[in-house]
Amino acid sequence: MPIRQLSETMINQIAAGEVIERPASVVKELVENALDAGATRVEVVTAGGGLNLIRVTDDGFGIPQQELALAIARHCTSKLADNIHDIRSLGFRGEALPSIGSVSRLSIRSRTAAGDAAAEIGIEGGRVSAIKPAAANRGTTVEVRDLFFATPARLKFMKGERAESSATSDVVKRIAIAFPAVRLTLAGSDRSTLELPATDDSAEGSLRRVAQVMGAEFPDNSIAIDASRDGVHLTGHVSIPSFTRANALQQYAYVNGRPVRDKLIAGAIRGAFADVLPRDRHAVTVLFLTLDPATVDVNVHPAKADVRFRDPGLVRGLIVGAIREALANSGIRAATSGAAGMMAAFRPGAASYAHAGPANGHRSYDAAYRASGFAGFDRSPQRPLDMGFDGAGFGENEQAAFDAGPLASADARAGTAEPAETLLGTVLGAARAQVHENYIVAQTRDSLVIVDQHAAHERLVYEALKNALHSRAVPSQMLLLPEIVDLPEEDAERLALHSETLARFGLGIERFGPGAVAVRETPSMLGETNVQQLVRDLADEIADNDTVETLKERLDKIAATMACHGSVRSGRLLKPEEMNALLRQMEATPGSGTCNHGRPTYIELKLADIERLFGRR
Which residues contact 297 (CB under 8 A, 6 or more apart)? Predict the structure, then answer.
C-alpha cells in the first residue's frame, strides 16, 4: 500500500483513541479546560454513564466568537507559550476538543465578559457546523452526546453504566481536591448528586475540601506533611498507621496542581509505610508536590496522567523521608474509628460474628473489625451468656453463683491505690489490670485504653533492633568464592555507583569486567541467600527509583522476625510496674500504634462512648 496522508477526521480519531479512553476521560479534559479558563463554578451533568450525555458548564473567561473555530482545531491552544518546558496549566496539547468531536456529537456555547452575546459551534463525527448566535451567560458550556457513535467498536470495551459513573466521580473528586476555591457539582439521571462547595486556598480550606471528598473522619486521623529538599516542596496529609483502607484508591497525588497516577509516588508511599501497615492494607494520602516545571516532564502520556521527574531519587527520598519523619513526630495515636468498632463489638449480636480463638499468639479478626482495620477480642470462656434477669430479680441459681464469689475476670490488678494524677494525664494512662494474660487495661482522665501486650512489645523490640541495625555498618560474611553476576552493562554501572551504600548494609560488590559484578560479601543476617536474585533485584530497583531499598527491606524483615520471637508473649502475667513501663515505652517510641505486621497495638474508648453504651447520653 502506498504512503498517503491520513484525513483530518482519521487523525482526530486516532488521537481520540489515545486521549479519550472512556467518558471519565472526556470529563477530565473538559473540567481542566474550565479551570484553566479561571472558572470559580463548574457544573457537570451526565446520563447513561456519560455515553449518552456529558455537559460541563463553567463561569470562566469564555471563548471569543472569532476563536471558536480554532478551539476545535488540532494543535491550537491558549495555554502554551513558546517554551514546552514551562507548562503551568492543566492542558496544553490542543487535542482534546477535536478528538472528542471526532467520535461524538459535540457543541460548544460560549460568551466572554466583554461579549454582547454568546456564540455556538458544533461537530458531529468530525464534521464541523457553522458558528451561530446563542443565548448564554458568561462562561462556556460544552455538551457531548452519543460518545463513540462514530467509532462503535470502542463501545464494546465500555463497562456498565454504574462503573462508568463511578470513574467519572473519581475524576471530579481528584480534580476538586487541588482546587478548593472552586465550587463543583456532579449530577445526572445516572447518579446521586455530588456537591462540593467552595472553601478557600488556605491550608484550612484545603483540608475542608479534602474532608468533603474523603470523609469527615480523615482530618482527625491524619498527619500534616510539609517538607522541602533541593527546590522540591511536599505538602499534604497522610493517615496515621491505624487508619487504613483495603485498596489504594484513596491515595491522591498532585504535581504542580495536576492530579497524577505516578508509579514512583505510589512506590514511595508504600515504602514509607512498609513496616507499619499489613501487606493487604493501604494508607490514605493527599500529597502535593511543587517544583520547577522545567524539572518535571508532563508530556510523556497523551492523557497527561503520568509524569517523569528529572531527579526521581530526590522526589522519592523526599516523600519517604517526610512521611517517616511525620509519623515519628506525631506521637502515638489511635484511629477514631476504633471506638466505633469496639462499641459495635459490645452491642448485642456482635459476638455471633467472631471467629475461633487466636492462633500462634495473635488475635483473630472479627468481620466488623476487618472493615475498620482493628482486631477483635476473643470471647471470654467465663462470660455468662444469660444473667437470668426477668424483671423481678435474679433466680436462685444465679444468685448462688454470685454468693459463691466473684468471677475470675482479671488475671492481675495494677494495685488498688488510685493511680498518680500524672499518669492519668499521659496518652495511654495508668495501668489498672491485665485480662486474659494478654490485654492491659489502662485509664486516662477521659478514656479507657486496652493494649495488646505482645503486639506492643513486638514493635518496641523491632524499633530497637532497627535502630541498632542502621546506626552502624551491618556485619557481613565473606564468601569462600566470589559470586559473579552477569548483568546488562548499565545495571552493572548503577550497582558500582552505589557500592559504598551497599557495603554499609553488608553487601560487598565490585565491577568484574564489562557487564558483570563480583559479590565478595553478603550481610550476615541474611545467612544463605540467593545472591544472583538479590543483585538483580537491587539493579532493577536502582533503575526504577535510584535507591537500594530492597536490601534494607530484607534486613528489616529479619529484624521484624527477631522482634516477634523476642517480645513479651501472650499469656505472661505482668507486674503493675511492668505494665506501666510498657505504656511509657510505647508513648516514647515512634510507630508504636501498630505492630510489625500492621495490627493495632491498642484501642481507645472515650468516656463519652462508654456512657452512650449505657444509655447515659
Answer: 307, 308, 309, 310
Q: Which three cell numbers stand for residue 251?
A: 491515595
CB of 59 within 8 A of CB of 39? yes
Rounded Cα–Cα distance for residues 437 and 440 (Å): 8
Cβ–Cβ < 8 Å for 54, 30 = yes
In a domain, 144, yes or no: yes
Question: Could you tell me if 257 and 313 lie in one domain?
Answer: yes
* Domain count of the fold of the chain: 2
Please tell me whether residues 287 and 323 are part of one structural domain: yes
Q: What is the pLDDT of residues 526-571, one digit of tens each?
A: 777 888 988 888 888 778 766 766 667 767 766 666 666 666 666 7
User: 42 near 179, Cβ under 8 Å?
Assistant: no
Structural domain including 325 reads: 215-329
- H or E segment and range at residue 431: strand 430-435
- Torsions phi, psi for 375 (to 5 deg): -75, 150
Residues 54 and 46: beta-carbon distance below 8 Å: yes
Phi, psi of 131 (to 5 degrees): -70, 140
Choice between 541 and 394, residue whose per-residue pLDDT is larger: 541
What is the distance between the alpha carbons of residues 65 and 387, in angstroms, rounded to a whole number? Answer: 81
Kindly report, residue by residue over 335-359, the tens digit of the pLDDT. 766 556 666 666 655 444 333 333 3
- Judged on CB neighbours under 10 Å (0-12, 13-18, 19+), 39 is buried
Same domain flag for 68 and 127:
yes
Distances from the Cα of 233 to the Cαs of 174, 287, 364, in angstroms?
A: 20, 10, 42
Cβ–Cβ < 8 Å for 99, 12: yes
Q: Does residue 87 carry a pLDDT above 80?
A: no
Please enumerate, as own/partner, the contacts of 473-476 that have beta carbons within 8 Å and a separation of 24 or more.
Answer: 473/503, 473/504, 473/506, 474/504, 474/505, 474/506, 474/523, 474/524, 474/525, 474/555, 475/506, 475/523, 475/524, 475/525, 476/506, 476/507, 476/508, 476/521, 476/522, 476/523, 476/524
